[in-house]
Amino acid sequence: NMAELENAKHTIKSIEASVLTLRRNEKDVLARKDLKYHEQYKKNFQKLTEETKSLSAIFNSETNVAKINSVQSIFVKYEEKFNAIVDTQKRIGLHHEDGLYGSLRKSVHDLEAILKKDKNHQLAADMLMLRRAEKDFMLRSDLKYVDAFKKSTEQFKEDMQSMKLSNKAEI
User: Fold this and answer.
1) Cα atoms found within 13 Å of the Cα of residue 100, Cβ hemisphere only
2) N or C: which end of the chain has fewer CB atoms below 10 A?
3) Residue 48 in contact with residue 18, Cβ under 8 Å?
């Protein structure tokens, strides 16, 4: 029936547009780290699911429905993986003051205050090396900076053990 084919064509075009919209929402979440785009993503994914169901209703033969269901399962896997990425990013921190990143930042600021009060220049220099490796990793996502961070941490620990600090227990 020509009307059904025309309806299917329109639905397929709508599915294509929905997938592109999801990709835009995804990029907005990752680039801007703003959860309002994740909410838009969820709404658009629901729309995509409805469009896919509509396409299944148009093509009611077993073979066509099986193919459409296969495509829908791929969409579901995509959604699951993207939601996992969003959850991980929330755990890391969407901004510099929240999540693990915020916790790390607060700890470093607390340590800076202790070292400043103690006027310990060697440990302050060690800490700056730690911060340098941290910032390099955050900017470049290169694992070599994790190794540099570990190495700087060991140096910091060695220097701390060899020094007499009034606030050693706080550090």
Assistant:
1) 8
2) N
3) yes
Q: Chain-centre distance of CA 75, in angstroms?
A: 19
Task: Give the side-chain half-sphere CA count within 13 A for 71.
Answer: 16
Q: Which tens digit of pLDDT belongs to each residue from 64-117?
A: 889 999 999 999 999 999 999 999 999 999 998 999 999 999 998 998 888 888
Nearest to 129 by CA among 108, 143, 113, 114: 108
Task: Return the residue matching tokens 């550090």.
Answer: 171
Tokens of 43: 């709404």
Of 18, 5, 23, 99, nearest to 51 (Cα)? 18
Q: By C-alpha distance, which of 144, 149, 156 is closest to 114?
A: 156
DSSP 41-91: HHHHHHHHHHHHHHHHHHS-SHHHHHHHHHHHHHHHHHHHHHHHHHHHHHH
DSSP label at 163?
S
DSSP state of 98: S
Please report the pLDDT score of residue 119 as a whole number. 86
Residues 149-169 as b/e (b if ≥16 CB within 10 A, e otherwise) read beebeebbeeeeeeeeeeeee
